[in-house]
Amino acid sequence: MKIIKLPPKGIFQVNCYMVISDKGNAAVIDAPAGALNAVETAARNGAVITKILLTHGHCDHIEELALLAEKTAAQVYIHKNDESKLYDDYSNLSEYFADYYEEPIVHYHGAETVEDSDIIELDDISFKVIHTPGHTSGSVCYAAGDVMFSGDTLFCMSVGRTDMPDGNQNTLIKSLKRLDEIKENYIIYPGHGSATELLTEQRKNPYMKGLNYDDWF
Description:
By secondary structure, the chain is of the alpha/beta class. It has helices spanning 37-44, 59-62, 65-72, 169-180, 198-204, and strands at 2-6, 16-20, 25-29, 48-53, 75-79, 112-114, 119-122, 125-131, 140-144, 147-151, 154-155, 158-159, 187-190, 196-197.
């Protein structure tokens, strides 16, 4: 398994990752501004993009989804609770952030919806869906081998905000508790910012390290 991080672009600086199997098939994690560069990156690495895995449906994570899916014919995956965000400008926040976009985000239909504990296979790689609602009701993490793509649920020393439509602080707390109970260590590749490790976040992240969850925010 080879993991490539594409350089973040745009005002939201969303991380986009490519995971390449030993057979040369690739999955792209999220489709923000700059995700179309994944096509050229895949070609340089002798890979073919066959899957696009979305951690959630906010506009900054799906900005180039429709274009990337059209170019690659890749199957798109998103949790069932966030599927409507792919074509609803209010719930995906593109209506709110309209001034930041030169053109409206192209809507996408045809995603395959997933639920907690589903497995998405990419040759020798198995992505396990971990439903971690809170940032949105359909936020997920994808765990594969010793890595986890955490989207906007968990960042290096921080967590995703919950003060937007479909966000919920108490629900995010429950999701963080679930991640806090995982015994295996994972390299965490978040939706924004730098990579980290789950064990580090469990010990040092102020939102996870045993504080009184009723007091934070």
